Sequence to fold (464 residues):
Amino acid sequence: MSSIHDFATWEPLLRLVRDSRAEQLAAPGGCFTGQIGLGSWTLPAQQPRPVPGRGLQVADMQDQFTAVERVQAALRADGASSVSYMVETAPDGKAVLHVIDAGPAVEHGGRSPFVGALLLVEGAVPEPWRRLPEEFPGAAPAPSADPALLERILHERLPDTIGATEEEIAAAEARLGVTLPDELKALYRVTRARWQDWSGDYAAQERVSKAVGCELFPLDGLYIADARSRPCPWQFAAKDAVVTAPDAAVQGLVGSPGWIAFGDSGGGDRLALDLTPGPGGHAGQVIMIDHERSIGAALRADSLTDMVVNHRDDWRSDDDWNRPPVVAQVSSPGDMVAAARPELEVLRIGGRKGEPVGLAPVAGLPRLRTLTVSPGTLADPLEIAGLTGLEYLSLGPEEWRVLLNAGAVPRSLSAAAIDVQGEQHPLPVLDLANELLALCDRPLITRTVLEGDLDTDRTVGGTR
Fold:
């Protein structure tokens, strides 16, 4: 058995839980849940107060680090990145530890530490991540695009840099599977932006960044910023929508096979040349891909020449996504009627005002694919059966139970979520999740139960 399923691995952590949550564990049904990952963890122990006159030291929290490091070592040995756990107290006073393996069909996150989105179809991604760019006839480079001018200006600013050869540029094109725009070729003919070429000289790197207007990727660091390069968990991604306004410069996409990422803002935002512009844009325009957003990009310059020559460093975004009529938030029957439009893709029901909300007004809408419902806000969960195009559904445990008992869980679903609000024991939620996974013949969540006396070496265990 893996050491992650060895009671001894967890003993230091279990003592922390016992000592800091004794009252919580002694209450009927009391338990503590958490996660341990290689880079983060959930512990019940409070941060100690530092000694007056000095900051908090590692030694002040050594017992916590020791507890975490023992579990992390077991994770590394197993090639795992995280593990969920639950601690409760047996009637005889022994510590009971539940080690949870969510398996490949469950995303991390959600209101429960064990259950994020349930992946009911292997490899499925939300609709915005499947959306390809539209073609807008007549999209042409901006008048400011001038590869010769760009190359000359960069040579003046960077007279001593090493440029890429035509063979190196051709190799980059072969790797990416696209022909690089002439402006991008002109840039890399001046500098190929390799760290080795600067011989560890940070000042040389800074001169290139200042001359170009961004932290330039080396030629072999170029990549296609398509949807796969911008992953997002189902529980968030399913609530997004792709919208491009009639006059938008940039298409409201997650990513595009025509977005060639070539640099970084210095704060995590990526710069790309856009070969699939919106109806109001130019082919080869420079866009900023915001690392804090999952959809869309902002226009930085009409061309690479414009950005470099004129030092363009501001940008504007067309924020047309996540708004009605494509996305709607409903809290009353009247809201539901107003939201029921053919364009509706994402429907969120919550914050109920007055009587429960019915789904009849949105039945049969052609594009409705996501429904999230706060527990207790829906008049009749069985009305969900009339929404035949759903790919993502989030409900409370009671609503899921109604659908399961009636055999009415939509077969169109690619992913699902259980909305757990308030204090609920995790194990019934795990059992419910496994029912949904089993319905789609997906790998189940497993639970290994270990029981031991923290004051002795006696331990028993088993898997459920």
About this structure: Residues 385 and 408 are 6 Å apart (CA to CA). The radius of gyration is 27 Å. The longest strand covers residues 82-89.
